[in-house]
Amino acid sequence: MAEISPARRAAFRILLTMERGHTHADDLLRGEAVNALSPADRNLTTALVLGVLRWQIVLDRQLKGLLKKPGAKLEPEALIALRLGAFQLLFLDRIPSHAAIGESVELVKQAGHRFASGMVNAVLRKMARPQDDTGSTDAANPNMRVDSAAAEAYPTWMMQRWAARYGEEAACAICRHGQAQAALSLCMEDAEVEAELVQSGIELAPGRLLAASRVVISGDVTATAAFREGRVRIQDEGSQLIAEIAAVAGAGLTENILDACAAPGGKTLLLAERNPRAHIVACESSPQRFAQMRDRLAARAGQIDFRLADAAALEERGAFDLALVDVPCSGTGTLGRNPEIRHRLRADDLPPHAERQQAILRAAIRATRPGGRVVYSTCSLEPEENQQVVTAILAESSSARQIPLEGAIELLNNDGILAPHAAEPLRACLTPDGALRLLPGALHTDGFFLALIDKIA
After folding, report:
1. How far, in Å, CA of 199 to CA of 136, rounded?
2. What is the strand order of the sheet 185-188 is part of?
3. Facing residues of 206 across strands?
4. Cα 358–390–327 angle (5° rounding)?
5. Total-model pTM
6. How far is C-alpha 270 from the chain's CA centre?
7. CA-based end-to-end distance of the chain
8. Rounded-to-integer distance, Cα 282 and Cα 258, Å
């Protein structure tokens, strides 16, 4: 039996699991099987899985043209092996073609589909160019490059709606950002953790939006004691910013805080750190995500009341000074980190999302006392989930109003929470309604939307 590298075997299993409609790439890439690999194999597994998912639409189009029967339905094992091999041939210049092809063929054989191995071998050999003297291979299609192909790696309906909403140039920038390796941003417990990470061999750079945030340049943060002990956490700067804005928007009001959709708990923890005397109710409706959040934030159990509850069904009225409503959404602002979303999401999924979001926001406003604040946020680029949700809920009642976020940005800047020169670019991201809209890559973050609501009666 021919040998298959641990990284390719792990990537094959993860992609096969996802092709069958189960779980998410991020969950599988953080699982025990991947964590047991060497750092090099773990990195290659991640690159293969995310690369195949990011470029799947392009890969399938290329592969279809090389099949004897382009319309034939392939077994999942053969399809995943073809995608893995094609991604390596087209996008990973340092991997020799014989390794990409040979191990893809062997993966199919060992998966019990020996009859399909000849087809996989023939198709990938058609795709590969002859090796050069260094043993590396380049793409059969010399035009297959990130800048020119990025837009083709997304469903047409997504690209069309982004172009119509944000313009052709911005839509292409969104696509390019989603095809590149996402930045690894850190949120740290205190300044001493940074020195500890550097001593552990982690190279860091300053954050672009937040003074306390750091971006990993090199090194494996997850292998450090600080990460295992929860003293440093991986969190996009845009996500950190949402919690910072919530904290400053509720300054002086925050004895009781509601985090309506709290898991995985990064924003909850930041709110707890910024408001050490506040009592926080953290709701989560998914039992699995709830258990993970409770375990992760166990050290804060005295301050945080963990509730396995649907935020849309909250019965409290006027009980909270501040509510953070970071609702479940389509996630189209995070397609670089969660590329599988583009293959699962459909345009007709958006109205049900919006109905759910409206129900949660309606309940959160009801649960907030007069004079309190509600922060509504998503990691979506879609207006149906963002301003349209806020507008619809505020139109129902005169008890709340949207207020511009420019004041919150000014407070963050004056308090030294923002990185130098970050305030002006953030102001440029404010919408006419005063909400904050971060498009992916515009400020080196994922895509986010945030609106501030004042409870007035």
Report:
1. 36
2. 203-206, 214-218, 185-188, 232-234
3. 214
4. 50
5. 0.92
6. 18
7. 73
8. 6
Helix ranges, 66-134 (H): 76-91, 97-110, 114-127
E strand or H helix at 62: helix 39-64
Angle ∠(318,322,324) on CA atoms, nearest 5: 115
Per-residue pLDDT reduced to its tens digit, 327-359: 999 999 999 999 999 999 999 999 999 999 999
- The residues facing 188 across adjacent strands are 232
pLDDT of residue 3: 87
What single DSSP character describes residue 141? S
pLDDT tens sequence across 401-451: 999 999 999 999 999 999 999 999 999 999 999 999 999 989 999 999 999
Q: What does the pLDDT average to over 159-188?
A: 93
* Helix residue ranges, H only, 279-386: 287-296, 341-344, 350-367
Residue pair 236/185 in contact (Cβ under 8 Å)? The answer is yes
Distance CA 19, CA 296 (A): 29
- Look up residue 127 and give its amino acid: M
Q: How far is Cα of residue 47 from the mean position of the Cα atoms in its chain?
A: 15
Rama region for 318: left / alpha / beta (φ>0; ψ in -120 to 50; rest): left
State residue 448 phi and psi, 5-degree precision: -145, 155
Task: Tell me the CA distances in angstroms from 323 to 33, 74, 452, one per residue in order.
Answer: 38, 49, 10
Q: What is the pLDDT of residues 231-258, one digit of tens each?
A: 999 999 999 999 999 999 887 777 899 9
Per the CB < 8 A criterion, the answer to whether 364 and 372 are in contact is no
Asked if pLDDT for residue 145 goes beyond 60, the answer is no
Please state whether the peptide bond connecting residue 264 to the residue before it is cis, i.e. omega within 30 degrees of 0.
Answer: yes
Answer yes or no: are the C-beta atoms of 216 and 187 closer than 8 Å.
Answer: no
- The per-residue b/e assignment along 355-393, b for 16 or more CB within 10 angstroms, e otherwise, is ebbbbbbbbbbbbbbeebbbbbbbbbbbbbbbbebbebb
Angle at the Cα of 393 from the Cα atoms of 389 and 396, rounded to 5 degrees: 150
451 forms beta bridges with: 376
Q: Is the Cβ–Cβ distance between 390 and 451 less than 8 Å?
A: yes
pLDDT bucket at 181, cuts 50 / 70 / 90: confident
Please state, in angstroms and rounded to a whole number, the distance separating the CA atoms of residues 52 and 10: 13
Mean pLDDT of the chain, nearest integer: 92
The CA distance from 203 to 398, in Å, is: 51
For residue 36, CA distances in Å to 17, 69, 111, 419, 442 come to 18, 40, 22, 37, 36
CA atoms within 13 A on the CB side of 6: 11
